[in-house]
Design goal:
- The structure is a single chain.
- The chain is of the alpha/beta class.
- It folds into three domains: 42 residues, no CATH class; 260 residues, Type I PLP-dependent aspartate aminotransferase-like (Major domain) (Aspartate Aminotransferase, domain 2), CATH 3.40.640; 115 residues, Alpha-Beta Complex (Aspartate Aminotransferase, domain 1), CATH 3.90.1150.
- 35% of the residues lie in helices and 15% in strands.
- It has eleven helices and 15 strands.
- The protein has a seven-stranded mixed β-sheet, sandwiched between helices. Strands 12-13-15-14 form a four-stranded antiparallel β-sheet.
- Strand 7, helix 8 and strand 8 form a beta-alpha-beta unit.
- Helix 10 packs across helix 11.
- The longest helix has 36 residues.
- The radius of gyration is 24 Å and the shape is globular.
- Belongs to the group II decarboxylase family.
């Protein structure tokens, strides 16, 4: 018998002494490449199918041309800017294109960086807010030991990490059934002279809604007029930054608002690139404090760097540029519009299925959320429905809303490029089958708290 501490090897391939491999320590001897590949390949067949993962915002497929480009570039280290000067040039072009897309006053001159994703970009944006606040306070001879930052209770987890890691007090504006997004009046109620900035989420992870950046900016403008407090805004547009410019071009949320000093976006979400790329842009160069930028000389030149990571792949940057060239603004519009059309279709159908009340319909980012109608059943809940959908292969998260609404459990479908209308029909068929099965139960399903897992990335 082979214990769970060892992994068996296909007897068609193993050499003498290779019958098993330890599971939790490095083997003393290596094995044939075919064996190593097959062992890992077999385990990965138990993973869910990326195409059916309706939980994630992250891109799961690209064109074959992009895959080829990826394979040609995965061995280039992005930090080696002197060695890979064309890659560096392409990274800069992407930054300028995004700055222009977001109406930067000087897109060719402002500062920006690519990151491993929006989480790193948010950290950098928060650091810039804190450093700008500290410098201004020092000029005024005031203490700098009690900074705070304001965001919604529905904020992505990275902002809670930022506040914890960099000793900034988080001040939450709780969402409510009547106020599903951060409300400007509630924002003003928690601001004081120690506030380094307000973070507005442009595409809330829980619901897909845009927070009202323009209205919040107007409230902060009025606050400055009456008190002199100049509070900047960072827009966390991880999802919405590559949606609004194409689907809602008249919506004012970006650098058209002078109070918005920085914006981040995930290139690997609706930027349509494989996982591992984010961007942050500052409105103008002076909005990024110079003393946060390091200059490295041991890579073959005097290289400026502002990042939490150092070595990382360059392929995703090249794939972002590929998409910009391949799609252009018209192409991005068509891709995002197709996703939103699928979201609208899902919403219209789901609201006709007996148990459900639709909460958000995909009119901001292409995300549809729903809850069980009050008193519909005591035999099953949305966690049970999530488990049942998994039997068909669909990964659909169920999770509670943030504080003050945590008694409300919802489900969410993220519509991404590749989730076609045909797949939507198949999903809805399976959803109705799952509901029919659960409705046929004569007694409640035993509740397992360990199954209540929030999947919200």
């Amino acid at each position: 018998m082979i214990s769970h501490h060892k992994t068996s090897i296909n007897p068609l391939y193993f050499r003498n002494g290779e019958e098993t491999a330890p599971r939790f320590r490095m083997p003393d001897q290596g094995m044939l490449p075919e064996n190593a590949y097959q062992m890992i390949h077999d385990e990965l067949t138990l993973d869910g199918k990326p195409k059916l993962n309706l939980a994630t915002f992250v891109t799961t497929s690209m064109e074959s041309s992009a895959d080829r480009l990826y394979a040609e570039a995965f061995n280039k280290n992005l930090i080696d800017k002197c060695e890979y000067q064309q890659t560096t040039s392409i990274e800069d072009r992407c930054l300028r294109m995004i700055a222009d897309l977001w109406h930067s006053p000087r897109p060719l001159k402002t500062m920006g960086v690519s990151t491993t994703g929006s989480s790193e970009a948010c950290m950098l944006g928060g650091l810039a807010l804190k450093r700008r606040w500290q410098k201004e306070r020092k000029k005024q001879g005031k203490p700098i030991d009690r900074p705070n930052i304001v965001f919604s209770s529905a904020v992505q987890i990275v902002w809670k990490k930022f506040a914890n890691y960099w000793d900034v007090e988080p001040r939450y504006v709780n969402i409510t059934p009547n106020r599903p997004c951060m409300d400007p009046e509630d924002v003003l109620a928690v601001i004081d002279e120690n506030t380094i900035g307000v973070v507005s989420t442009f595409g809330v992870t829980y619901t897909g809604l845009y927070e009202p950046v323009e209205t919040i900016a107007k409230a902060l403008d009025e606050l400055e007029s009456s008190t002199g407090l100049d509070i900047p805004i960072h827009v966390d547009a991880a999802s919405g930054g590559f949606i609004a410019p194409f689907l809602q071009p008249d919506l004012v949320w970006d650098f058209q608002l002078p109070r918005v000093k920085s914006i981040n976006v995930s290139g690997h979400k609706y930027g349509l690139v494989y996982p591992g790329i984010g961007w942050i842009i500052w409105r103008e160069a002076e909005d990024l404090p110079e003393d946060l930028i390091f200059h490295v000389s041991y890579l073959g030149g005097n290289i400026p760097t502002f990042a939490l990571s150092f070595s990382r792949p360059s392929a995703q940057v090249l794939l972002q540029y590929y998409n910009f060239l391949r799609l252009g603004k018209a192409g991005y519009y068509e891709v995002q519009r197709a996703s939103q059309s699928v979201a609208y279709f899902l919403k219209l159908t789901i609201q006709t299925i007996g148990p459900f009340e639709v909460l958000t319909d995909g009119s901001d980012i292409p995300v549809v959320t729903w809850r069980l109608k009050e008193g519909y059943t005591s035999n099953w809940n949305l966690y049970n429905l999530s488990d049942q959908l998994l039997t068909f292969g669909w990964q659909v998260p169920a999770y509670p809303l943030p504080p003050d609404m945590e008694d409300v459990t919802i489900m969410r479908v993220v519509v991404r490029n590749g989730f076609s209308m045909n797949l939507a029909h198949l999903f809805l068929k399976n959803l109705q089958q799952a509901v029919s099965f659960l409705d046929s139960l004569e007694s409640p399903i035993p509740h397992d708290m360990s199954c209540d897992i929030s999947i919200r990335h």
